[in-house]
Amino acid sequence: MLTSTSALPKMVRDALMNLASPDDIREMQMHLDAALENVTEDTTQVDLEVGAEPDIDWSTWSEGVEDLKGKGEDELWSMLGLSSKRLPFFQEFTDPSGNIDPWTTEGTQWLKEETKLREPLRPRWHQLVGILRMLEHLFAGRAVLLMDGVGLGKTLQSLGVITCLVMYQEYHQRHKEYPGCFSDHPSGSIPALANIIVCPPNLQPQWTREIHHYLEPRSFDIIPVAGAIHTREPWDKGIWGKSVQPISRRIVLAGTQAVADDGKAMYEAADGRTGEPKAMVTFDRLAPQSVYGRNYLLVIFDEAHAARKINKLHVAMRALRDKSSGMLALTATPATTKPEGESAEITLPGISAKIPHSAYTDCMLRWMADFRKAYQRHVIRRTIDSLDSDGNRISGLKPYVDRSLALKMYPWEYESLKRQAHAISSEASGSANIHNASKDWLEMRSCKLDALAKIVTHHLATDNACVLKVGEDGYTLVPDETAPRDDPETRGSQPDRIVVYSAFPSSNFAIQDVFRLFNIDFVAISGKTALAKRAQELDKWRSSTPESGPRVLLLSNVGMDLLWSAQDDEQLRGRIYRYPQRKSIVIYRLLADNTPDMFLSTISFAKSQIHQAFIG
């Protein structure tokens, strides 16, 4: 039994420190009252067609919002019933660098000061479209699968849905109708329930930061859930019991492992082929301290592809779906690239499709048509190349430069590669740590390491440096004068920084040695780096300048839970190629010619046709 605040996990301590006080709640209620008055005045003047299904041919969906393409921002705000053109409970300003925590005293004061660094916090056109379409689906009782590409703001849209629902509930209590285009909706009032966000444990701190970034300080209380069920206190004795917020302004933030463990302890799959949950005899005893001890308005399931197979998380999330009024699943990669088990499945809680098994992968594209049909009324999917109502790219980003550098290996490297292949094939146990033990490994990787050092030193030496290409000899790197370069007036004042992604962490030691050899200051983060240490290293990288600090970040297996593929590549690229990035991004792919590099690159990206067949 924990007896002191200092003994609590940091996530719990932070949540306790950020619980809203009665004064905070009174102030927030005053802001909400003022916003509701504006909603009332505005919606009486809007002449919109309400209460009807969207006029869209769902069978041919590509983005799931085709019918909203012609709507401008003003019309979207009116359809949402938000005449102030601000999302409820959202901050007015933001720190685009993400270095400021607006829920701290210093952060709140920073955002109040009229500095050139702060920027107005305004959702982009596609985010308003996403929020509106998700609300339409939820009002119609449909689960939603938000598959926007990385960097398009799925978090903002999800929080926007939560805050709109809270505001709509308050509005309905006063006016017995909903605002905007939902005014003729026949359903009753939105229940006064908390919302729950389920995400991988390593993303819980990130979700907390995003909530702080977007929402006004202490407008919602965050209730974290982590750890084994027997270590948790009952709801009324934990953080929930200490919160004085209205229940609808509480967000439960639960890790997928905690939810899966709760589900395993309290549910079993009634049918192993469908994953339908059946409560066990332990339910009544364990419910008071589990995620199933409450009902929820909305379940938001981040990284939902983790439950696409019938596993314990899938059963647990289906049970949690039964405890909620609506469900929103977030993922950019719902489709597998091969048959799994006895069938090919894309089955998410609240949305299901199941196709008979076949061993022939060429059947997969035909099956995708059936999957698309099952999902046709649930999906929202935009990419960085999608267009807004004015025909501009919704990302607001400049096109990126993508360079695959096919490098010739040095003669001794080919000989080394042959020796390594022979050593591996003759190693009976397969347990030798060849990568760390063999000098030949360093030699084999030298063409890539040499190129990496040249690329990094070239771009650190001068901001907005010319893009490099492989010279005619296949070994040297030379400037490509034809490649586009940024206009210095529009690329911002931040210095250029570099991210190096190593797909194989075992090669990191060689990369780091090369960086030290060339006096390149860097920080390194891997999947094993502790969260606190990870945040510190990222802060060093973000705050670096040409004069001091590490401007190079070495990543390996951080938040990358997919195989090397086109989807994996999209997730990695989206870590830096996202709004409000002002610079053109240059992506280099280092490939050793006449090696398996070329084959793996081709076949891995060819897998994307399965994914593309599903998303259209």
Describe the protein's topology.
Elements (H helix, E strand, L loop, with lengths): L9 H8 L4 H22 L29 H8 L12 E2 L10 H8 L6 E2 L4 H15 L4 E3 L7 H22 L18 E6 L4 H11 L6 E5 L13 H4 L7 E6 H11 E5 L4 E4 L3 H4 L9 E7 L9 H10 L2 E7 L12 E3 L8 E3 L7 H12 L3 E2 L20 E7 L3 H16 L7 H4 L1 H6 L1 H16 L6 E3 L6 E3 L18 E4 L6 H10 L4 E5 L4 H12 L9 E5 L9 H8 L12 E7 L3 H11 L1 H8 L1
Parallel strand pairs: 3-10, 3-13, 4-6, 4-9, 5-6, 9-10, 14-20, 17-19, 18-19
Antiparallel strand pairs: 1-2, 7-8, 11-12, 15-16
What do you see in this structure?
This protein is an alpha/beta fold and 616 residues long. Among the domains are: 141-150 and 191-380, Tandem AAA-ATPase domain (Rossmann fold, 3-Layer(aba) Sandwich); 401-615, P-loop containing nucleotide triphosphate hydrolases (Rossmann fold). 37% of the residues lie in helices and 14% in strands. It contains 21 helices and 20 strands. The strands form 7 sheets. A 7-stranded parallel β-sheet has the order 5-6-4-9-10-3-13, with helices on both faces. Strands 17-19-18 form a 3-stranded parallel β-sheet, with helices on both faces. A hairpin with a 6-residue loop joins strand 15 (468-470) and strand 16 (477-479). Helix 3 runs parallel beside helix 5 and helix 5 crosses helix 6 (154-175). The protein starts with 9 loop residues before the first helix and ends with a helix.
